[in-house]
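#structure-requests
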Amino acid sequence: MKEQTAIIKKLSRVGIFGNVILAAFKLFAGIFGKSGAMVSDAVHSLSDVFATLIAYIGVRLSKRRADAEHPYGHERLECVASLILGLILAGTGIGIGYAGIRNLLSGETLEIPTALPLVAAVVSIAVKEGMFWYTMHYAKKLDSAAFKADAWHHRSDAISSVGSFIGIGMAKLGFPIMDPVAGLIICVLILKVAFDITKDALEKMLDTSCSSDFEKQIGAFIAEQPGVVGIDLLHTRQFGNKIYVDLEITVKRDMSLVDAHAIAERVHKNVEENFPNVKHVMIHVNPEEAEPEENAEKTD
């Protein structure tokens, strides 16, 4: 737990300070380099500061232990953080798109940017791509949806900078209209990432079942457990970054209650040990159906 807390703090510090410095540099380059696309890119980087703060708060709250009011834990708070991140990203994209359309329709003569925004775009691509891999590495280690969303926030900023670089470069070649057009391209890319993050967060908040591949994998594992004759029901649901399993297994009908209970306990323990994301397994035990001869004797 202490190691996780240290990683969370380290990720947050890198995300916040890195984005503040980068946003300030890009804003300076955009204003003095006469590039609206780079100013939009700077706004995107600034939104990453708030994204990292929200991810940090959401992950810290989700790690709190279960209590009387929240007996199932607090994992869904991380989904709430991811949802907020997706909405912030969508708002940023819409704002950038609006600025691009306004510049295109204003009728004013568009200025040709200087070389400074081009330098800023190259620096941004390198820094934000590095922050993406750094954040994603530790997000996977923590199995954190919020920090994974934050990592994609960094990646979307790197993609934005690629768009800025192309637009600014085309503007310098004598096509100034490409600078606001780059802003519109950035808008579309950001909205796509925002949609994916929001969709993932909502699925995990709405008790969506796991993938069929996962259910086949866990079903095959359960079927191989000693004493399990068959599986009558297997349902999974996502709870934040954790999984709950509802299970009905079949055991031999002449088995004592104590032995049947022992099988259920063993299945419960083995599933949670071999599938780390499974937080709890609720098991119901059914007796196998009687043989046809046995049913016939009872009828007679």
